[in-house]
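Interim report to the steering committee. The following record documents the input for Outer membrane beta-barrel protein (979 residues).
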Amino acid sequence: MKKQHLLFLLFFTLSFTAFSQSTSVSGTVEGGGSPLIGATVALLKADSTVFRGAATDVDGGFQIAGVPAGRYIIKASYLGFSDFYRGVTVGGTPVSMGTLTLSSASRRLREVEVVGRAATVITKADTAEMNAAAYKVNKDANAENLIQKMPGVTIQNGQVQAQGERVQRVLVDGKEFFGEDPNAVLKNLPAEVISKIQVFDRQSDQSQFTGFSDGNEQKTINIITKPEFRTGQFGRFSAGVGTDERFRLSGNINQFKGDQRISIVALSNNVNEQNFSSEDLVGVASASSRGGGNRGGGGGGPRGGGGGFGGGNNTGDFLVNSSNGIATTNAIGINYLDKLGKKVDVQGSYFFNYTNNDNNYNTLREFDFNNPGAYDVNEGGLSDAKNQNHRLNLRITYNIDSANSIIIRPRLSLQQNKGDSFTESRLFSDSQIESTQLLLKNFDNTFLSDLTGINFNNSILYRHSFAKRGRTISLDVNNGYNQNKGDNRNDIIFLKDLVNEGDDSLVYLTSNLDNRGYNVGANLNYTEPLSQKTQLQLTYVTNYSNSDGDRRTFQYRPVTELYDSLVVNQSSTVDNRTFTQEFGGGWRYNTKDFQVMLNARYQWLELSTDQMYPRALDTVRNYHNILPFAMLRYNFTQDRNVRIFYNGRSQTPSVDQLQGAVDYSNPTILTQGNPNLGQSFNHSFNVRYSSANPGKSASFFAVFGGSFAQDYLGRSTIINNGPDTNGREVEDEPVATGTGVFLGRGQQLSRSINLDGQYSFRSFLNYGFPLNFIKSNLNLNANATYSKTPSLYSDFGTSYQPVANDSKTANLGGGVVLSSNISENFDFLISTNGTYNQVEYAYRTTQNNDYYNQSSLLRLNWVLWKGLTLTSELNHQYNGGLAEDIDNTFTLLNGSVGYKFLKDRKAEIRLSGFDLLGENNSLNVLFQDNYRETTQTTVLQRYFMVSFVYNLRMFGGAGARPMQQQQGPGNFQRGGGMH
């Protein structure tokens, strides 16, 4: 291995000796009396073939480096201007072209603009670009309201989806805005400043530079602002008080001045508005689920409503399931962008929030809901969780010169969570659940937590372009550290019931948690052109990570009045170390309309696990994998293309999955890791077809993908559902699970395990087109998924021997979105999405179920007369096929009337009403391989609120100069790209 390291060190060192004698060509491009940003400048050879090119920066300047001596033709082009040509002779010194002035070709464009309709969607390579002017919204609309009208973009449960995939990042003019937090952008950026919306798969910084994908794309939305709004101040402030002591305060202010952009957002309310990332609420989610509830996993059912009335935004569209209780939120964030000199770009954001979530819940867990002789668990309780979070993101780009650059990206998150919950659990015989005589088990559980967490990551990327086009070298060094520590206290009281005699038993437990880990790694990448159309890539990746998990549980002893008795089977200490090395190469063929990329890496991975509790265990495992990647893109025409991806990657178990301790935070559903858990390998593919017809403002795209896993990280479940006589428990005989855990009647244990046979497929279609006769746009979508998830199951019926209980889930859905394009004074959106779901199990066939859920929305914003406004929002939820005793349908109606006044109608007084029909409800149904869980939680009830809203608008006018797009699609710095 040392020889391999020396070879790569020698390779890295020799690569820097490959500089050849060359110079540069620079200048400025202007048109209409102003610099042109993003103009294309190309050096042509004598035969008119393109030798090398560049795009102009924020000042209209360009520099083309690595130009050998010779005679060339320089060409400058920009949309709306005639192409510019000039001959140039390059010697041994840099050449300055001065100012290249382009002549306007606007007359022809104006003619088209008069008679034509703004194109809704156009396709640019791998990017779908939507014209905001083709989607009219009201003056108070934000970016979220705008994108909901666009084809293929939906918002479900607060998560933005585009082309059937979750949007992980939203950029503004190609630059990050509040880090990786889509909601912070979409809910605070006004729609009126938006010119275009771009949807694309964003590659990593290193992949953008080399032109070779590493398979880590993120679905991204880039918001391009209008030039006239890029200099000035704008914001929105709102204050409201309501009945039932409800309140809502919010504000955002943005100061844009060319490259410098400062944004501040603030929020305080008790109406469930949470406009920030799920990363900020990990503590809240963990506390409310009480650790062992396993909520949110498995099959999943429809969710209920219950959000606050957000001043015109879609009710319930929050990243966290707002139906789980009522949250009081206080948050503030600041985002800063600037260009320091000509070489340094700085992007940074800081976010703080404090959330207090109160919830009352009732859960019915039916372990065999189609079999009258089975057991049911009925739980009722309340919880309170307080979560405090700090999040800091920073990105510094240093463009040393035209051939060298460095990107530094530190990220830090600090979190503190305090939570408590009280739950009453009752175990019944399902045959006569209403009869108290058939109460089999009865216990109360109090759970307290006090947790803190820290997560730090940093990466430093160095990029160098050699003089020879397509030859690059880049090195990405990264490191990280995380720690989660604190205390959990679990008080369980087993109460005397009416069937069995005996005294109440009490168990008091406390757990000390300390999980921490760090990692360090590097990715060295070299590209070499083989011809004008082909390119070679060589890659070396190494990474070392260490994860320590220390969880020790102690039981209270009355004799000492201390928690000093170690509970071994609920304690675990694990030291998990992973060392990875990867060697590989890739090949790329690229023309204007056709691109093929093939890549393969050999991976050697060593996984070492040392465990002290619950039993001593030391293991060392080595894995050898081939990680393949393939991509094909073909452009049938400028507006029609297809992309095909294939990717293979490994997944190592987390420290939680390796810990052998039993989690008793939910006494009826116990969970346990597995120190013998091995690595999983996943294969995935994706086919994407897109087509646009700008002349008819129509668009269509289709996505089909799938995956299958070897040694899937699944689970094995055992449940004690021993026999009873006439519904009465004969004796509560514990069952040994073979893992050091004994289960009482009605308890179950889920344990991590490797299984084969997992696969899934999905498809998504969308067709959008205008309905000119009613001045509206119509989007039609359809989707289908099918998956198989392997699992093992054992109970009394299997003599507690595990049997395969694989689940097969099928979903078929479709939706319609009709949005107005009439005027900003009359804006409506009508949408409905329905899904038919089918769940089948191989062994537990009585758990099979079919159900249907449908969500519909009607939103209206209407400026009636001289500033008088009317807004209304109607949400309808239908859930069919779940159970006869479940409330399947509810309607949530919100509305407001307001009056705009002051200059330009910047201020408004508004009277709002939430849940005017009084039907708000919360329903969550979860399907697992051995039970169905139905949960209803606290929701907001009807209230009214009076609000004052003020919109700040102070802009520099149409002559304002736009900022430089650094990372938007089509403007990536690609040292290795061969276009």
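The first strand starts at residue 23 and ends at 31. The committee is asked to note this result when reviewing the revised timeline.
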